Every structure is written in C-alpha cells, then in structure tokens.
Amino acid sequence: MPGFFITFEGIDGSGKSTQARRLAEALKARGLPVTLTREPGGSEGGEEIRRLLVEGAPGRWSPVTELLLFNAARRDHLERLVAPRLEAGEIVISDRFADSTRVYQGAIDPSLRAMAEEIHRLAIGREADLTFLIDTSPDLAARRGRPGREDRFEAKGDAFQRRLAAAFRALAEAEPARIVRIDGNRPADEIADEILRITLARLPAPLARKGGGNG
Ligand code: ADP
Ligand code: TYD
To answer: Measuring CA to CA, which residue among 91, 176, 78 is closest to residue 122?
Structure first.
C-alpha cells in the first residue's frame, strides 16, 4: 500500500494519545495527508463495539469473547477506514492496534497468546509500518490519572499495569525493526520532538518529499 501506517502503544495513562495527536498535528503542519484514529473504535462499527468493551463490569465478557470483540472492532476499522486511507496514500496514525491485543489479552490469559496470533493472521493480516511504544513507569502513568467512565480495564490495578509494561517491552525487543521504544517519563514536548524526527526519517520517499525531506 502506498501510505504509511503508524501505531502508538503503551499502558493506560502512558501518554500515547497525547503523542499520537501531537504527531498528527506536526505532520499536517508540514502539509502531509494524515488520519488520526484509535482502537478499539475508529470506524462507526468499531466505536459501537468499543462501547461493549470498555463499559460495564470487569467480568462482563470471557477472555475469549473479549479477544473476538477486539478483533471484530479491528476488522471493521481496517476495512472501513485504515486500508482505504492507506490506499489513498495517506499517513494513518492509530492510538493502539494489534500489539494491545497481544499484550492485554495475553496478560489476562497467557493461554490465549497463540489463539490471538492465529486470529490476527486470519482476520487482520497486517502490521503497522512503524510502532511507537510509549514506555512510561506504571506509577507515573497512574499519577497522571484520567477522569471518565471507561474504566473496565483500568480497574484491574497496579500489578496488572506492571505486567503490561513488561509485556510491551518484551514485544519491542522481539520486533526491533518495527517497534521503537520511547522513554515516556519525560516532558511531552521532548517526547514529541523525538517521535517526529524518527517518523520523518522513516517515511517512504513520496511522502518524505511532500513533507520537506527526511528531517
Ligand atoms: P494514554 O492515551 O496513554 O492513556 P494520555 O495521552 O491520555 O495517555 O495522557 C494521560 C494524562 O497525562 C493526560 O492528562 C495528559 O495530558 C497527561 N500527559 C501526557 N503526556 C504527558 C507527559 N509527557 N508529561 C506529563 N503529563 C502528560
Ligand atoms: P484506550 O481507550 O486506548 O485506553 P487508554 O486511553 O486508557 O489507554 O483502550 C481502552 C482499553 O482497552 C485499554 O485499557 C486497553 C484495552 N485494549 C485491550 O485490552 N485490547 C486491545 O486490543 C485494545 C485495542 C485495547
């Protein structure tokens, strides 16, 4: 596909939504075509499935049902939004994608890791071109806090957030060509500068030319 697909990953409160937004703004300011989106959600159907996932009691779904719902949301998002925009040559930035399923659903039930990979291969079949792991200490992420009622996952507690952080790091070590680990324990401006520099250096030639070269 002619576009460029960037994803942001990290634990809850790591600062990834802030950085996804900052990168989208910086690239748009350079005249590049950018779509900023998120998972679960992003498309109309994806957002409907999101409500089923993030609201309600922690035990609302079994781990397998939850895995299927995240993939259903992702399939709709990919079909309706991500793939068409990439085909049109845009940069698509998604706040979370498939690594979140590997890490979260894998942490909830390690026996689901193999099933998660198989479903991904069959139903999604695509990775990001570039993934930023915003690696923020769970204590700091928790202190930053976030209001709101989408709390089904955050209700799982500190020990769970630490397991997630470790699983994200392991994924980044296993896939160094795609996943760039960014120290999230710094001021947002400093992080945004680093991410923009890396992105400009990795854009495919036609987009890099539009954005004024490789930084
Ligand atoms: P996430 O999407 O990972 O849950 P957010 O980007 O929503 O995280 O950030 C969580 C909170 O922390 C927000 O209130 C945001 O303004 C704040 N925040 C984000 N990045 C930083 C940073 N580098 N330093 C301090 N606060 C931050
Ligand atoms: P999100 O809105 O990104 O939460 P936050 O802003 O707190 O990072 O995602 C909602 C929750 O869903 C979040 O706790 C992570 C979880 N999640 C999964 O468990 N699996 C997935 O595949 C995705 C995309 C998210």
So the answer is: 78
Q: Quote the pTM value.
A: 0.95
Query: Worst-scoring range by mean pLDDT, 125-134, 184-193, 206-215?
Result: 206-215
pLDDT tens per residue across span 72-85: 999 999 999 999 99
CB distance 48 to 77 below 8 Å? no
Distance in Å, CA 183 to ligand 1 centroid? 13
Asked if 181 and 14 count as a contact pair (C-beta separation under 8 A), the reply is no
Q: Give the type of residue at 94.
A: S
Measured over all CA atoms, what is the biggest interatomic distance in the chain, rounded to whole angstroms? 50
Distance separating alpha carbons of residues 78 and 74, to the nearest angstrom: 6
Q: For residues 31 and 1, give the distance between their C-alpha atoms in angstroms, rounded to a whole number.
A: 20
Residue 155 tokens read as 């209700």
Ligand 1: residues within 6 Å at CB?
A: 10, 12-18, 144, 146, 187-188, 191
Domains of the chain, first to last: 4-210 (3.40.50.300)
Extended strands (E) in the chain: 4-9, 34-38, 91-95, 130-135, 179-183
